[in-house]
């Protein structure tokens, strides 16, 4: 039985699927892990764990379906991450993660002053922020010169897996476009002058598209994983983009809304749209561009409340349902780990306004769900103001298992959300890309709408429109009104942690 294997390295876990030619999931495997936060604003992870978990997942999937014939391997992972390795492919330090890691704020200011914000946006598409990979490279060079002196190659989770499986050194265009400002978005190539200036000692990874075949499984990788030698492996890309593929939300006019540890939004179009507060990137496929955004907390916030209250998710959801729209007069800002888009404020912090002695954990949980929904609305309105034509919204990710959360997002934003049959996420998208890359004339290329049809549509409750319009106005004003005090508190937190 011909199958494809897909593995995604996420923030909280690595997930794998084994899928047949019709898209049916035959087996799944997961390995939970934790990121490291050694200092305020730092979020990193041992890159060797990514390979160890891939090996364990691959062996578990193969053992679960002994009759499977692996025809291709798909890889995916969180990003943009910065994993630097030496000549022998040994990491010189832990990988620095995506926009939730805010350590490079000084380098962002320096590079912006050196190059100029207008020129950075012209070449790379986006202004520099905590999401940009370039300043994190410079941070390593300036703050850890011994590690930088040994660094020779740059990887992200997907490209690291491709390297370990095939020996190929490469990076996909989408991931490269987030190593801002080192990628020329219109030319779809590395920007040589800035690469030489800021990353000159690092060997440039050749660029491919996400679904391109990177190479085939080597004898050593076959021995480690149980995947047959010679099996094709795709290049892969960042998980949010692979998730968009998994639900067919990568066509022009689509918006993918990913409910996960963080919330991520990817709008796909043909034009390069630029706006200071969002991320302009190359698409996963040639000829497409994305305007993307992300909340720094979403599932992480609900998880924090679960741990804080000691209640489980079903109980908290029931309590939040009982609380009702508006959380009985509570309003929360979800900036518990700073915020990415659209405010781009690493020193933002969580705020809960309106608390009384009569409020319950259900009110707090409802306020948290509404806070993330209002954050989504803020992003969508910013995207549309920049020219994004959003015709269809597709929900994906672990958070789609909770109907209440999706309903609140639709109510707060006015968006209709398509919920596909399979919402397992990026590992499924990686398996689809592998199936597409290795399709034969006899089988034909798979179609994601056949693999993963829409199972449900979430419609907004129009009777709540005025209520959420008013709440959104307060949400925006609460941030502006509390920003100065919150920044002072953030400075104190940094002093305490130093």
From TrEMBL:
User: Which PANTHER family does this UniProt record tie to the protein?
Assistant: SUGAR KINASE, XYLULOSE KINASE
Molecular-function GO terms, alphabetical: D-xylulokinase activity
Under the heading PROSITE patterns, the entry gives: FGGY_KINASES_2
For this UniProt record, the keywords arranged alphabetically read as follows: Carbohydrate metabolism, Kinase, Transferase, Xylose metabolism
Its top-level enzyme class, in one word, is transferase
A Pfam family matched in the record: FGGY_C
Q: Tell me the organism's taxonomic lineage.
A: Bacteria, Bacillati, Actinomycetota, Actinomycetes, Micrococcales
| Annotated TM spans | none
What is the recorded name of this protein?
Xylulokinase
The text of the family note is: Belongs to the FGGY kinase family.
Gene Ontology terms describing biological process: D-xylose metabolic process
All residue ranges annotated as the Carbohydrate kinase FGGY N-terminal domain in the record: 4-241
Task: Tell me the CDD domains matching this sequence.
Answer: ASKHA_NBD_FGGY_RrXK-like (cd07804)
Q: Where is the Carbohydrate kinase FGGY C-terminal domain?
A: 256-437
InterPro entries tied to this protein = ATPase_NBD, Carb_kinase_FGGY, Carb_kinase_FGGY_CS, FGGY_C, FGGY_Carb_Kinase, FGGY_N
Q: Which EC numbers does the record give?
A: 2.7.1.17
């Amino acid at each position: 039985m011909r199958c494809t294997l897909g593995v995604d390295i996420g923030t909280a876990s690595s997930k794998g699927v084994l899928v047949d030619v019709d898209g049916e999931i035959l087996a799944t495997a997961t390995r939970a892990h934790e990121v490291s936060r050694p200092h305020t604003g730092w979020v990193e992870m041992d890159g060797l764990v990514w390979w160890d978990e891939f090996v364990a997942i691959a062996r578990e999937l193969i053992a679960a379906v002994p009759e499977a014939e692996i025809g291709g391997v798909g890889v995916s992972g969180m990003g943009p991450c910065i994993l630097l390795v030496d000549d022998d492919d040994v990491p010189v330090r832990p990988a620095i993660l995506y926009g939730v890691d805010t350590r490079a704020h000084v380098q962002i200011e320096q590079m912006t002053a050196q190059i100029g914000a207008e020129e950075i946006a012209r070449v790379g598409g986006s202004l520099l922020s905590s999401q940009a990979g370039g300043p994190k490279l410079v941070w390593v060079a300036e703050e850890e010169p011994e590690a930088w002196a040994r660094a020779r190659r740059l990887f992200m989770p997907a490209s690291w897996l491709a390297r370990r499986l095939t020996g190929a050194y490469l990076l996909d265009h989408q991931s490269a476009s987030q190593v801002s400002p080192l990628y020329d978005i219109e030319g779809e190539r590395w920007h040589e002058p800035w690469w030489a200036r800021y990353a000159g000692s690092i060997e440039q990874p050749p660029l491919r598209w996400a679904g391109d075949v990177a190479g085939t499984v080597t004898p050593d990788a076959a021995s480690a994983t149980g995947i047959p030698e010679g099996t094709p492996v795709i290049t892969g890309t960042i998980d949010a983009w692979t998730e968009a593929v998994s639900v067919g939300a990568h066509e022009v006019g689509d918006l993918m809304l990913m409910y996960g540890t963080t919330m991520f939004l990817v709008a796909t179009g043909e034009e390069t749209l630029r706006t200071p507060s969002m991320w302009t990137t190359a698409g996963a496929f040639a000829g497409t561009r994305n305007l993307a955004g992300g909340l720094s907390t979403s599932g992480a916030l609900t998880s924090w409340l679960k741990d804080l209250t000691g209640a489980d998710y079903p109980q908290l959801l029931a309590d939040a349902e009982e609380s009702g729209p508006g959380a009985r007069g509570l309003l929360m800002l979800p900036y518990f780990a700073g915020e990415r888009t659209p405010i781009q404020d690493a020193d933002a912090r969580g705020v809960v306004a309106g608390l009384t002695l009569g409020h319950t954990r259900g009110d707090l949980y409802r306020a948290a769900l509404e806070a993330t929904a209002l954050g989504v609305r803020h992003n969508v309105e910013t995207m549309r103001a920049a020219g994004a034509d959003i015709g269809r919204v597709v929900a994906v990710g672990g958070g789609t298992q909770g109907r209440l959360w999706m309903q609140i997002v639709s109510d707060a934003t006015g968006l209709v959300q398509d919920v596909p049959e399979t919402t397992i996420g990026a590992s499924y998208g990686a398996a689809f890309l592998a199936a597409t890359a290795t399709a034969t004339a006899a089988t034909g290329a798979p179609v994601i709408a056949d693999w993963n049809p829409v199972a449900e549509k979430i419609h907004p409750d129009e009777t709540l429109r005025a209520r959420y319009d008013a709440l959104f106005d307060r949400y925006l004003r609460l941030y502006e009104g509390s920003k100065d005090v919150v920044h002072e508190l953030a400075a104190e937190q940094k002093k305490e942690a130093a």
